[in-house]
């Protein structure tokens, strides 16, 4: 209602009817916008165009653009986490697991345009101040828990290992160097430096 006749895509759900999950449909559209035009150029209008609906329709499901962006980033991060864990769990040692976990996470942040905006956000002091809060550490701890399947006696050290892992990842995402020029160089660096920092048994590389 109230849309220009020449823009049928922007009339509420005209093309295919209301989807089973309208919120998910809009979030998926926002993810595509992040991947194609980036965070700065993703607006409510670009999300509406990608969704094939009007801005007014989007406001039925979300209060602000930021709400959509946050949920889109969370979805993309969740999907990326599944891929990262699938790769890391193929390793037969705790050292191999944690190294591949970080290598895969680094690669996702750098190569996946839908979640790479997180790196820019983390460069701000306010965001950095929230990175190592107990709630965030507890969330990331879940991804390091498979270490206990290799070394069951290290449970009391897992929170500290999680914080160390997060510090390494944040530093590597923020400051590029010869250690990050390729996956092989990053992998070698992490075996030399991260594995001992976590107190894990080393392995031949």
UniProtKB/TrEMBL annotation:
Gene3D superfamilies: Tetracycline Repressor, domain 2. The keyword Cytoplasm does not apply. Pfam families: TetR_N (PF00440). One of its GO terms (molecular function) is DNA-binding transcription factor activity. InterPro entries: Homeodomain-like_sf, HTH-type_TetR-like_transc_reg, HTH_TetR. Residues 20-80 form the HTH tetR-type domain. The keyword Translocase does not apply. This is Putative TetR family transcriptional regulator. It comes from Mycobacterium rhizamassiliense.
């Amino acid at each position: 209602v109230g849309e220009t006749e020449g823009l049928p895509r922007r009339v509420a759900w005209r093309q295919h009817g209301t989807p089973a999950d309208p919120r998910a449909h809009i979030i998926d559209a926002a993810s595509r916008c992040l991947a194609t035009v980036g965070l700065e150029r993703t607006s409510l209008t670009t999300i509406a165009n990608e969704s094939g609906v009007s801005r007014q329709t989007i406001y039925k499901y979300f209060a602000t653009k930021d709400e959509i962006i946050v949920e889109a980033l969370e979805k993309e991060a969740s999907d990326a986490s599944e891929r990262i864990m699938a790769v890391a769990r193929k390793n037969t040692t705790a050292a191999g697991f944690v190294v591949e976990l970080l290598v895969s996470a680094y690669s996702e942040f750098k190569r996946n345009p839908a979640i790479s905006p997180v790196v820019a956000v983390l460069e701000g002091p306010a965001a950095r101040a929230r990175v190592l809060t107990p709630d965030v550490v507890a969330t990331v701890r879940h991804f390091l828990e498979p270490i206990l399947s290799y070394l069951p006696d290290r449970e009391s050290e897992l929170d500290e290992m999680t914080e160390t892992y997060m510090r390494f990842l944040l530093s590597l995402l923020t400051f590029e160097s010869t250690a990050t020029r390729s996956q092989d160089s990053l992998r070698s660096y992490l075996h030399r430096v991260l594995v001992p920092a976590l107190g894990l048994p080393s392995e031949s590389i």
